[in-house]
Amino acid sequence: MYAQGHPPKDYTFLLSHCLLNQKVRAERAYTSGVTQRLLGILSHYPVWLEQLPCPEFSFVGERGRKPKDEWENLRGFREHCSDLANEIGERIRELAERNAPFLLLSIARSPSCSSGQVYRGKRLVGGKGILVEELEKRVKLNFLEFDFGRVSWSLQKIEKCLKVLGEL
Ligand code: SF4
Prior knowledge:
It is a single chain. By secondary structure, this protein is α/β, with parallel strands linked by helices. The chain has one domain (12-167): 3-Layer(aba) Sandwich (Rossmann fold). Helices cover 39% and strands 15% of the residues. The chain has six helices and six strands. It has a four-stranded parallel β-sheet with strand order 2-1-3-6, with helices on both faces. Strands 4-5 form a two-stranded antiparallel sheet. Helix 1 links the parallel strand 1 and strand 2 (48-51). It is globular and about 45 Å long. Bound molecules: iron/sulfur cluster. Iron/sulfur cluster binds next to helix 2. Iron/sulfur cluster binds at residues 16-18, 24-25, 54-57, 107, 110, 112-113.
């Protein structure tokens, strides 16, 4: 375990935007305590935090829930994600060039930010969100997925990961 304030490496957590600002979530969804609990855990470890932009809110603002196929059919949205991925990818390449490890906290089932499953119509299928797909065309990523439907489980997973990193 490393001492607080003395990271063994320069570790960066790239946070999906809504983990720190739920205002951007579809249908104004809000899960109480998420940001406070997440920051409470992260603050015990010497990691850098970077908040990624929200691709959906920055494209359409407030919105209803849509499956991935509807976002794919929305004109200009993939290009918007591609532009964001260029900027984010640039930053990630800088981290990679100085061998600074990083992890992206993705969002379970998000049509834009998932790293595991997405909805196609009403079916939940394997696949990544559109922003994540665009990022992976540019850089190699490691993910840890946060599930707003399983907050305690997600937080435990993050804390376990931080403890493991501290032992490296
Ligand atoms: S999962 Fe991604 S697109 Fe959805 S609200 Fe969070 S940051 Fe925005």
